[in-house]
Amino acid sequence: MRRTSLVCLMAAGLALLPISAVFSSAPNPTPARQSKLLVDFESDITVTSDPLGEGTNRASVNSTADFVAEGTKSLKLDVTDVGDWHDNALVIDLPQPIDIKGHQVLAKDVYIPAESLNPDSTEGAWWQLTPHVTTTDANDDTVTAETWLGMRQMAAGWNHLVWDLKTGTDTKLTRIAAAISSNGARPYTGPIYVDNIRVYEGTFAGIKPDEKLIQGFEDPAVKDAFSGAQAVEVNTDKQFVRDGNSSLKIDLTGAEGGWTNDVARADDWGTTLDVSNATELHLDLFVPEGNQPESWNELGFVVIGEGGEVSVPSVGFLPGQWNTLVMSLTPDQAKMLTNVKGIYFIRNQDSATPWRGPAYVDNLRAVVPNQEPPPTAGE
Q1: Where are the alpha helices (DSSP H) in the chain?
Q2: pLDDT tens sequence across 179-232
Q3: Which of 128, 190, 245, 285 is deepest in the core (most CB within 10 A)?
Q4: Cβ atoms within 10 A of the Cβ of 144, count?
Q5: What domains are defined for the chain?
Q6: Residues 6+ apart with CB under 8 A from 4
Q7: Does pTM top 0.70 for this prediction?
């Protein structure tokens, strides 16, 4: 196996619109939440990037303000000609393990210039980042484990990317790494920029003080608003309910094929919540271990508002625990949605492996900073 060379970088401890629509500056959708900065690229740290296995380092320091989320510097990754799936696009070995006890959410800001996304190509496009982290054992710092956190889609402009950590891995962090991918016939044509890598206290699952509930799936009649290839019902089994008394069960058993948005769809469930001042929408997802396909698989959702739709493209998740699917909103997207009327789901997977059981969703909600605490689900 070819080894990469190491360098020291500056770093420290629409109608249908995608969530990563261009932000004029790096978004901070949850400013009131407690977090711990892991890497901000302002002081020395060793970073490597060799996605094509060339034995060279494609990582460098950027000081162009347009590509910096916070401070004066960010990390520049030259991913020119990188197509398909490649690991080692980003590897950060921390000088000392960082204690992240009590922090279960990883976030990073990624800026992609439009010219880096092969804009002259006529091929279909997808642009993805998949992190994997190395953490210590809770009882022995010399024992480490690596966890893959699931793919996130990206687009031109600022992408605020959020992942749930695997339950039980909130110990000490020793390495942050990531794979990058695209349509193999449409490789990247320039650099991307990474900044503001941090972990948030607690989890994002469940209704938080800066959120307002849109749909808690508490009314049994809400299932009648749905149509599509997969049957839905209101679930009252508490092991699959995040808050309140019920959740929405989507029976994916036997679902196969590649990408589809014909999963379950509610076009108009009536007036719920005006989200015109929201910065993000969140939805909790639980897939019991073993229900997911044996090979790679992803889920996403699209929110329907009075003026159009905004999507969370299909993304990876961790089975056996609550995940929070995050939809960051530009001010224009939030105003376009206004009242949320409905939702539909997106599924993508290896076409050779079908789903083996249902998935559950709960708590579709809006992040609205500087508001009064919301009622709990069911009230």
Answers
A1: 331-337
A2: 999 999 999 999 999 999 999 999 999 999 999 999 999 999 999 999 999 999
A3: 285
A4: 16
A5: 7-201 (2.60.120.260), 211-367 (2.60.120.260)
A6: 48, 49, 50, 55, 56, 57, 88, 91
A7: yes
